[in-house]
Specification:
- The protein is of the alpha/beta class.
- The chain has a domain of 136 residues: P-loop containing nucleotide triphosphate hydrolases (Rossmann fold).
- The strands form three sheets. Strands 6-7-8-3-9-10 form a six-stranded mixed β-sheet, sandwiched between helices. The chain has a two-stranded antiparallel sheet with strand order 1-2. A two-stranded antiparallel sheet has the order 4-5.
- Helix 3 crosses helix 4 and helix 3 packs parallel to helix 5.
- The protein is globular, with a radius of gyration of 18 Å.
- It starts with a strand and ends in a 13-residue tail after the last strand.
Length: 225
């Protein structure tokens, strides 16, 4: 992947496969290429070389008018939540379903179920400003999963949260993963990665330097236990 203005390789010779139902962390320092990977998967960027296939689709073959329909396959969670400030928790989650044409009766039935999964049944009528950071991120997770996408991408989902709350968010991500959702988490959170010990895909200067299962944030030497 080359950015034209700088004529610089943002990614170079990157190749990995995430099977359906997998849970993987994408790690690396700032500028390593994590954001570029997520933008490519979301079809916000087009690779200058190579092929990107998501859920059986070659992204280079998707026409612009098809992109919104393709993105319905992917739930996305951001570090800064991106909630609609003047809508309640219920309305924020419902909005994701409304934009894809879900019937109102289905929304009224399904939103409470999703809020129950993320532990926010008692906050349905609250506004985002009335919630803690962890609660806002739970709303964001509920919204991302509202349409039951097969893939969930979380971009630094615990970046603004304390350690205890971060672990709670990761438990919810793992719960969705256990229900069959493929999860990719881009993160700098060493403690979270170490606690979860899932698959770790590590980038450095746009190159893939590690792809390891049951891994910690830092590569362990052979003598480590």
């Amino acid at each position: 992947m080359v950015y034209d203005k700088a004529n610089k390789n943002a990614l170079e010779h990157i190749s990995f496969d995430i099977p359906k139902g997998d849970f993987a962390f994408l790690i690396g320092s700032t500028g390593a290429g994590k954001t570029t990977v997520t933008r490519l998967i979301l079809r916000e960027e087009l690779a200058t070389k190579g092929t990107i296939i998501v859920d059986g689709e070659d992204l280079s073959q998707i026409k612009k008018r098809q992109i919104p329909f393709y993105r319905r396959k992917i739930g996305i969670v951001f570090q800064d939540y991106k909630l609609l400030p003047y809508k309640s928790v219920f309305e924020n989650v419902a909005f994701a379903m409304e934009v894809v044409g879900t019937p109102k009766r289905n929304i009224e039935h399904m939103v409470p179920q999703i809020l129950s999964i993320v532990g926010l049944s008692d906050k349905a009528e609250s506004l985002p400003s009335q919630l803690s950071g962890g609660e806002q991120q739970r709303v964001a997770l509920a919204r991302a999963m509202a349409n039951n996408p097969p893939i969930l991408i979380a971009d630094e989902p615990t970046g603004n949260l304390d350690p205890a709350t971060s672990y709670e968010i990761m438990d919810i991500l793992e719960r969705f993963n256990n229900l069959g959702t493929t999860v990719l988490v881009a993160t700098h959170a060493k403690d979270v990665v170490d606690k979860m010990q899932k698959r770790v895909i590590e980038l450095s200067d746009g190159k893939l330097i590690r792809d390891e299962r049951n891994a910690r944030y830092l590569r362990q030497s052979r003598g480590d236990k």
